[in-house]
Amino acid sequence: MSSKPEIEFPSGPAPAQLVIEDLVVGDGPEAVPGGTVEVHYVGVDYDSGEEFDSSWGRGQPIAFPLQGLIQGWQDGIPGMKVGGRRQLIIPPEQAYGPTGSGHQLSGKTLIFVIDLLSTR
């Protein structure tokens, strides 16, 4: 996957639970809980469709340990294989918390499309 994904907007109310959907199943090593992943990703607000973050926009992937990330990523990335593209729909409880918890994305359901480039 060498191009930024287009996100197709779901209809209806935001889900109350984490939704994991593999758009492309990879065939490389599998991401594990607590591991470090290198990813390309784009994140949008479920309600408005506005993009709030994208590694594509910065022109380079990012690597980080899973345990430092929001719960939706910690729960949604393990099991994904390198070369894969996965969509996560993450409710506020597994993202940045309820409205008023101090983060600009608090109270929001978020959609991420993540390309797993490597894992260690």
From TrEMBL:
Domain PPIase FKBP-type: 34-120
Keyword Isomerase belongs to the record: yes
Enzyme class: isomerase
Keyword Isomerase assigned: yes
SUPFAM superfamilies for the chain: FKBP-like
EC numbers: 5.2.1.8
Similarity comment text for this entry: Belongs to the FKBP-type PPIase family.
Stated name of the protein: Peptidyl-prolyl cis-trans isomerase
